[in-house]
Amino acid sequence: MQITLKAARVNAGLTILQAAEKIGVGKDTLIKWEKKPWTVNVLNQKAISDAYNISIDYINFLPKTRI
After folding, report:
1. How far is CA 38 from CA 33, 35, 41, 44, 61, in A?
2. pLDDT band at 64, cuts 50/70/90?
3. Helix, strand, or coil here: 3?
4. How do the domains of the chain map onto residue ranges?
């Protein structure tokens, strides 16, 4: 099972500002990524995984699918 990028941040106990600082990006970039996680490149996915202390395999970086 995978969780959203925002859920991963919240589970890590980080605010947008704290998470952005740990990842090394601006808060506006992180907000954009939480809305459109498929725009995050592989290097930044790894940085997020490390900052949130969660395996990259458990974060959903794919777009929402509509049924």
Report:
1. 8, 9, 8, 11, 5
2. confident
3. strand
4. 5-54
Spatial distance between the Cα atoms of 67 and 56, rounded to a whole number of angstroms: 25
d(CA 1, CA 10): 17
Q: Does domain 5-54 have CATH number 1.10.260?
A: yes
**Which is nearest to 64 in space by CA: 37, 43, 31?**
37
Q: Residues 8-63: pLDDT tens digits?
A: 999 999 999 999 999 999 999 999 999 999 999 999 999 999 999 999 999 999 98
Q: Give the global pTM.
A: 0.89
